[in-house]
Structures
1.
Amino acid sequence: MVDVIQACKTCLETPGSVFENLSQEEKDLLTRRHTSRFYKKGEMIYQIGERPVGILCLAFGKVKIIKEGVTGREQIVRLARPVGFIGYRAFFAEENYLASAVAIEDSVVCQFNREDLLATIHKRPEITMLIMKSLANELGISHDRTVNLTQKHIRGRLAESLLFLVNTYGFEEDGMTIRAYLSREDIANLSNMTTSNAIRTLSIFSDEDVLDVQGRSIKVVNESRLLRICELG
Amino acid sequence: MVDVIQACKTCLETPGSVFENLSQEEKDLLTRRHTSRFYKKGEMIYQIGERPVGILCLAFGKVKIIKEGVTGREQIVRLARPVGFIGYRAFFAEENYLASAVAIEDSVVCQFNREDLLATIHKRPEITMLIMKSLANELGISHDRTVNLTQKHIRGRLAESLLFLVNTYGFEEDGMTIRAYLSREDIANLSNMTTSNAIRTLSIFSDEDVLDVQGRSIKVVNESRLLRICELG
DNA sequence: ATAACTTTGTGTTATAAAACATATCTAATG
DNA sequence: CATTAGATATGTTTTATAACACAAAGTTAT
């Protein structure tokens, strides 16, 4: 079981965190009024329509950001990994959430106080610039996904999603197994296709020796071929 | 013909510009090293892969931000209206452009110097927050579009795009005619469909008295029905 | 252990939309 | 003014993929 108490420290001090260069005093300010909470796999962290109360940071686990389409089919618009913000788009846009966040693994989420965070970034413009860079980067990813999910065919979309998973969560120690164990439904919702077609196409990739699929464990056997499938569309 | 010389003043002083509350001195700093340029309808402003040299602001006209899909089909990912930044995503992500910008009307674009802009926003955190808000807002729009363009059917997608045009450029004085005169191809590229299907579906909407289409002029005759088509998908 | 439920897997059918094929209309060019 | 090119329009064919149907395997609860 993960250590919920240490979660805040993790968010503030993990290398790569936007907060890592804060002074102890500045970190204390953020820590004083923070809360952390454990979420079981499948549990909802926030829901579309709610108002962000603070800013959330994923300390441990994996989280999907989902939107409901007209057909009722769910679409994964983003995947979060530790350590990173979640729900910060709505926070900085000063809007209610336009999507929901659900843990896809047991996760721990810290919440920092709104005013404390704003005071911190006001004092430290370089942090603001880092957050801005992150938002700009996300926007680029989103534009890319819009084009890829609309224009590529099933094989290309699935290959794209698998590479996106690799990019986000990396490989296990073997350097081949994707460090993410999603349901077929989640893979489908990430790739903009039905669950049946995700299952079917995974089988085909397995038959073609591009992947080695054992339940939810997906091994990328031939990454260059996967890349080619992705690029051809 | 628009006044290219006055373009910079327009970018800095138009109500709603993030710069409108700068002091004269601060405006002078930005003005000193700025350039403005006129672009004819159809002309390219920047191209995918190029490095942003400064930050661009659309003073007059209309601009589409496009990405090339695998099939070669172009996808409009954003539409810019005056007064607003263009290419600021790449600027703040510190990346090369991931999309191209093309004038869809005769346009005037100002370019502010990189260092002068950074100095300005460093001195004025509230401007940074406004730009951040704008990026966060764009990201929400992009996530929405991802879901809508992938999940809705042709009628829903076209209705969506027309309402997006209304939202971006508004109506003419009659309160019905969309203040944007795109080619059928551009409408198709905005709606993620072939040109033929855009033309066909516009005709159908016209037959159904939802629209009154006269060449490139599109009058929204029954906005509530258009909204319903959009919502039903 | 058995039942009930969920997830995964695979074959078949139906359909939305792309691709293709022309035709007409409009705008630019010599 | 005639010629050409580009944009708009519409009908037909083809195809990718959703929708459906069902079976098998795993998981959870009683």
Note: Residues 125-151 of chain A form the longest helix (27 residues).
2.
Amino acid sequence: MLDPKTVRSDPERVAEQLQVRGFTLDVAAIEALENQRKSLQINAESLQAERNSRSKNIGKAKAAGDDIAPLLAEVEQLKSDLEAAEKSLHEVQQELEVLLSGIPNIPDAEVPPGQTEDDNVEINRWGEARRFDFPIQDHVDLGDKLGLLDFDVAAKITGSRFAVMHGQLAQLHRALIQFMLNTHTVDNGYSEVNVPFIVNSDSLYGTGQLPKFEEDLFKLRADNEFYLIPTAEVPVTNLYRNEIVDADKLPLKFVAHTPCFRSEAGSYGRDTRGMIRQHQFEKVELVQFVRPEESQEALMGLLRNAEVILEKLGLPYRTVILCGGDIGFSAARTYDIEVWLPSQDKYREISSCSNFRDFQARRMKSRWRNPKTKKPELLHTVNGSGLAVGRTLVAVMENYQREDGRIDIPEVLQPLMGGLTVIG
RNA sequence: GGUGAGGUGGCCGAGUGGCCGAAGGCGCUCCCCUGCUAAGGGAGUAUAUCUUGAUCGGUAUCGAGGGUUCGAAUCCCUCCCUCACCGCCA
């Protein structure tokens, strides 16, 4: 959520900034509602003040043993006026709330213009795409021929967009998770956290998935507002919902491995082959809570933490900054890391690292006590994948494939695979 | 799932209809005293929002949401959560 004061005081400017992401702010509607809200609030609050003082007088009169009947009569009209005033104020406030919570974050000035991912700007490239002197296979064929990756049986037990991994491939998947967690905890100073994979609607509101993007989520039952997490960002970021953090605890850096569940509504026909886009996948997520002035630096550090994983795995990648049209709802700035996939002859997203500034913190009321002002102030939140495990597995399979269809194991993973050097 | 007890400020804890945004204690901040430590004295110390140049002040918030009442932390209803015991269970 944006600062209502900012939206209120200079809606034209906010609207202009949101243009970069192709969002049209209904300035007229906001101003109209704001004006209503203001007068209704002043009216309701003065009636409340009136009621409070009169009620106090009644209390005093009663204590003094006076007759309170005339006082009660005076207050009668006030009561119904107040009820009406509170009701209309409440309605307008709700309308405003709906409108405000539907406004995306303001992109940083550095965010390039553009509508689609084609307008994203490359800022970094590492490694060289391997040249194969034999016909390459994609991960689906590789896994199938090795007998280690099975989409058909997954379709039987559940449906499309699920996968079953067997044996050494399942083990490699697990080794990747272990490798990422180890690197982030030991080398990068994150503290590991294990969180629920089911969250309530308040948490999803806090990070910005609700109310606008409910169709992307798996909802459990209608009666209890529980959802499967679409990313660890939700439970981990909400660790500090409604909290005030001591300044000396900052920055808070967490790494969590969780499954992620996405309905993938609206992605029909995209990435239908293989395990690039699944309803269920696993991810190692990095989340930081930082002082406002440090969030940009924190984002660059976090991005680097994610990139290093690919470098250690020897997987070529490039990093892009997302253009205005491609950036997510809650983010002010996002860098995507894209890994090289030989079968597709292109780079594919494997991590998304964002600075949310105070957008999520405002929704969550996540604050820190600023020693300078001694007041609670909003934190900044920064997060990113470090990395998406399923896609990393795909990248390893395809980049490390051999002519005989077997798959070499990257050196850093070998100790976690019991010394195994090749799969198959 | 059943029964019972609870959810109050950074923490502990009092408060069963008005004098309660909330006693007392702890913690923290500032000041004084004490000239090592320890102790002692005084003041301050929730959040959001509106109004204001800033104060002053208004409003809301005692798990959440409704209700009763002139007036609710306090009474009623629903829900959530915690604890204890029982049941069930990896």
Note: Chain A has a mean pLDDT of 91.
